Amino acid sequence: MPAFNLRITRALAQRAEQGLTRTLLPHQGIAQGALHHHGQSFVHFSGNDYLGLANSAELVQAWQQGLGRWGAGSSASPLVTGFSDVHQRLIRELCDWLGYEDGVLFNSGFSANQATLFTLLEATDTLLQDKLNHASLMEAGMLGKAKMKRFKHNDTQHLTQLLTDDIANPFVVTEGVFSMDGDKAPLMDIATACQNRAWWMVDDAHGVGVHGPDGAGSCALAGVKPDILVVTFGKAFGLSGAVVLTRREVADYLTQFARHHVYSTAMPPAQAHALLHATHMIQTQQWRRDKLNELQHVYHDVFHFLPGYVATDTPIKPFIVGESERALRLARCLKERGYWLTAIRPPTVAQGKARLRITLTADHNPEQIIALAQELTRLFEEGI
Ligand SMILES: Cc1ncc(COP(=O)(O)O)c(C=O)c1O
């Protein structure tokens, strides 16, 4: 089909011309804050495994136990025979912990977000999203039937203004912690703006596990309870998948009508077993959050005077370098010196805001952060 060939060739060439081509780099394993690639070991500053659970012996063992008990796969979608007792226990545990009546499991945060917005919103509704919400939310808004408006990032005044306009059935969505900027949403103010006016939803992919009492997340920290809370398992839980927590009737509605739920093979029960264990680890192993906090102080101490530093009180540390080429060059030079960082470029972030996205995990130690700051300082001195 020449039309397809031409389109694909053109798009790839355009990406390459813009210096925006992305490449899959297969590594040979990640453990204890190190990534192994082509026989070399790198200090790994680009994952989202904030609490260091993904490679913890305890969680690996829990998954192995789950495999022994439940086998490898779920074998069917949830409404057929893919939903087991351990899936149910996982939902119950998450509800009891985070204060919701019921929940629906998905295989990824991406599908949880899309399913929720596609299913709940109709053409007569208005979706109001923070401008910097994750691609899964933005895309759902663009493809969905509801009218979408974006409010300025973390700007509750703008949100309030949009809510006072004559709009139908407003539904507000924000992240708890923004994935590329590492800043937190003003959840209390958003809750106030939405009170008696709109349903609201928080995607706390980067907050649950890390913030709040016992890691209960950004909403618990802010003392608010959105109508819908999305928790993803690919970050602090060290695994993958997601849950949408809400009222029983809404969960039932999603169970019946969310196509990503109805028509997709359920997550393996062994994974649900491991997730149940990760949920306990998050609540009981406060030392992981304490260590992360200490590392954040170290990061501030050694990075705050470097140009490009952005203060955040989350483990996501954007380091703004401006142009895409420079971000790539810096990431490449750091790689040569044994540090694995990701250069984040447009279209993921705005033009001129390319950055190194440095993430801290409980697997790091202070010396690694200090050494990274020293390397970056040297590179700046060399004019890179
Ligand atoms: C805020 C946010 N929501 C949703 C997702 C998607 O989650 P998943 O990776 O489980 O698909 C991500 C992933 O990066 C994210 O950062």
TrEMBL record:
Q: Which reaction does it catalyse?
A: 6-carboxyhexanoyl-[ACP] + L-alanine + H(+) = (8S)-8-amino-7-oxononanoate + holo-[ACP] + CO2
The EC number(s) given in the record are: 2.3.1.47
Q: Which Gene3D superfamilies match?
A: Aspartate Aminotransferase, domain 1, Type I PLP-dependent aspartate aminotransferase-like (Major domain)
InterPro entries in alphabetical order: Aminotrans_II_pyridoxalP_BS, Aminotransferase_I/II_large, AON_synthase_class-II, PyrdxlP-dep_Trfase, PyrdxlP-dep_Trfase_major, PyrdxlP-dep_Trfase_small
Q: Which PANTHER family match?
A: 8-AMINO-7-OXONONANOATE SYNTHASE, CLASS II AMINOTRANSFERASE/8-AMINO-7-OXONONANOATE SYNTHASE
Can you state the subunit structure given in the record?
A: Homodimer.
What is this protein's record name? Answer: 8-amino-7-oxononanoate synthase
| Biological source species | Vibrio tritonius
